[in-house]
Specification:
Chains A, B: Keywords: DNA-binding, Transcription, Transcription regulation. Chains A, B: GO terms for molecular function: DNA-binding transcription factor activity; transcription cis-regulatory region binding. Chains A, B: InterPro entries: HTH_LacI (IPR000843), LacI/GalR-like_sensor (IPR046335), Lambda_DNA-bd_dom_sf (IPR010982), Peripla_BP_I (IPR028082). 2 copies of one chain form a homodimer. By secondary structure, the first copy, chain A, is α/β, with parallel strands linked by helices. Chain A has 3 domains: 44 residues, 434 Repressor (Amino-terminal Domain) (Orthogonal Bundle); 132 residues, Response regulator (Rossmann fold), CATH 3.40.50; 146 residues, Response regulator (Rossmann fold, 3-Layer(aba) Sandwich). The first copy, chain A, starts with 7 loop residues before the first helix and ends with a helix. In chain A, helix 1 crosses helix 2, helix 2 packs across helix 3 and helix 8 runs parallel beside helix 9. Chain A is elongated, with a radius of gyration of 27 Å. The first copy, chain A, binds a DNA duplex through helix 2 and helix 4.
DNA sequence: AAAGTGCATGCAAAGGTTTGCATTGCCAAA
DNA sequence: TTTGGCAATGCAAACCTTTGCATGCACTTT
């Protein structure tokens, strides 16, 4: 018995053969005699030999690990994406390292440095809401690490992208609100540098334009973070307009729910006086009262696809930089927080 | 310019000194002359030298990574714990690898094998609801890997534990229900092998005993998984009793919300006809209607403490096996889903 | 001048595995 | 018998860093 764990050398010594032969036998190298292979494998089994991946990593200059950078995981959205990623990666030889930026650019930088140090093999990323500059990701790419961006786009970064057609989702939602008779539709927008914020805003604006509903600047407010206080403040700003909006299209379900709460506190009837539509379709959105109308996104599938794309790059490291861009279609889900009751009070 | 990334040898060659000197200079070894250190550091900076952690891992026989095994992350509970863990670990030199068992014993085994292969340095674990046998964790410990168990206990496993006083929480909740006049209190219990299930059940039973409320076996049902269908079925079983319960104490908020939904579908008034109390205080529980009474747990702190305990073991690897057991006190949060309206209908 | 002291640095091994090339032994063809 | 070829295995380098011990040098002390 030796001290530490069993190595390939231990097996070699025991069998009076060279370590290289053991290695080849274990890996079913064709130049090794059948009996040798069997003997080696039997002894390896008996000694409970575990290959030392650390040594392999050094040799191959790769960590067999992929990093996933997300802003947070306490909401359903990113945790569901991660679950999708995990369910794909778990069937590969890769390990997965989840990193939280906490919506902070600084922390995102630190994470990227760390991942680069441990020689990460690939990265899945959804940038923080503070991130405007993507040079840290470009630097990763330059050192040969493939990157797949999901949900929140990084404009100017050439990489694989798995996105949602936020514009389409927002357009649908707002056109639906117009269709049920709303004409003072406010938008509670997300943090301004996010691509998702921008696209949802644009969808909102275009839906208004197309349907000849006047755009009122006072009906558009953006939060810069996701804390309850901030959202409450922004909502009050919307609701303190001299002309009360008759609908709020919110950037996300969480914003919508916060807004709903605030509206209730101000004594407003939902959807009687004001309709509310969110975005994300978080599971609990169906359970609040009134149940929240929202825009559903195929989160789990997005996670799986992102992971698959990254894996395919890792299998073929020499492929030219031909990036995929996959855009999922979201779907409007109508529930009780919005209601066709304005047509009457219209005229 | 060389091909790959800059190594310590490149710096040594450039400066006509030995690699070992470079290493020592970079690590501020006292035996190195000041000027040498400065020269080395300057060049390292200029060449953007990144130490190769893979080589270090091999040398030290450790991966500088700790594993976190959780059953799922789509709920708030585990994702908040993980956030706490992460916020502590991020300030250490360790990386963190999050693994999802999906409440499956099989997958948990696979994860443990994987972690062992990559020479993980320490593990934080909350076992799956299927896990009855903890030998896989014991095996890890035998190979010198410290384990900290959190939330869900592993009875028979000697390790550090960061738990919640589930018994106390359940006792408080049920005694409160009795206090507001309920005397047909049902329990919608969790999966049977979980320590949390057991302790919450015991708290429920003892609260009834202490207050001389009759225990009715038909009022206790356990789910074996957390799918909505299963919970619905279990709830219906409870509500189909010839004597309708006047309260349900549920194992978790998610179960409570599912049950609430089912009860509503059956036309029951909450809390008019039946009070409901959950466990966990998920953030959305405050937003559903009626807002859910529940038992709050200091999740984020639990995550942080678990991580700190593990780190302290990693700093002092030679400490004797003296395990800590930290038990957090949960707190009853009373909201609208339970109401003091039974005293009238009592007599 | 010889011996002693201490500082600054170099040498080489170690960690476990893979892999290109070399080597050995054996049999068949010339 | 020599040569060629093949099958099976061994050798040694490589991946990069750290670290115990040795070395070299200059200066002080006797």
């Amino acid at each position: 018995m030796k001290k530490g764990r069993v190595t390939i050398k231990d097996i070699a010594r025991e069998l009076n053969i060279a370590p290289s032969t053991v290695s080849r036998a274990l890996n079913d190298h064709p130049a090794i005699k059948k009996e040798t292979k069997e003997a080696v494998k039997a002894l390896a089994e008996k000694l409970d030999y575990q290959p030392n991946l650390l040594a392999l990593n050094l040799l191959q200059k790769k960590s067999n690990t992929i990093g996933v950078i997300v802003p947070e995981i306490t909401g359903h959205f990113f945790s569901a994406i991660i679950t999708g990623v995990q369910d794909v990666i778990v069937h590969s030889e890769y390990n997965i390292m989840i990193c939280l930026s906490n919506e902070s650019y600084e922390e995102e930088l630190t994470i990227v440095k760390r991942l680069s140090k441990i020689q990460i093999d690939g990265v899945l990323v959804s940038p923080s809401s503070e991130t405007k500059n993507f040079d840290h990701f470009k630097k990763l790419q330059k050192s040969g690490i493939p990157i797949v961006v999901f949900d929140r786009d990084c404009p100017g970064l050439e990489a694989d992208k798995v996105l949602v057609d936020d514009y389409f989702g927002a357009f649908q939602a707002v056109e639906y609100l117009i269709g049920i008779g709303c004409n003072r539709i406010a938008h509670l927008g997300g943090p301004l540098n996010l691509s998702t914020t921008e696209h949802r805003l644009q969808g909102y604006l275009d839906a208004l334009h197309k349907n000849k509903v006047a755009v009122n600047d006072q009906y558009v407010v953006h939060v810069s973070g996701f804390s309850h206080e901030e959202v409450e403040l922004a909502t009050k700003e919307l609701l303190n307009n001299n002309e009360l909006p008759d609908a709020i299209f919110a950037y996300s379900d969480n914003l919508a729910i916060s807004a709903m709460h605030t509206a209730k506190e101000l004594g407003l009837q939902i959807p009687g006086q004001i309709s509310i539509v969110g975005f994300d379709d978080e599971p609990h959105s169906a359970f609040i009262t009134p149940a929240l109308s929202t825009v559903w996104q195929p989160v789990y599938s997005m996670g799986m696809l992102s992971a698959r794309i990254l894996l395919s790059h890792l299998k073929n490291p020499n492929t030219p930089p031909e990036y995929r861009k996959e855009v999922f279609k979201p779907e409007l889900v109508i529930r009780a927080s919005s209601k066709e009751n304005k047509l009457v009070s219209e005229d």
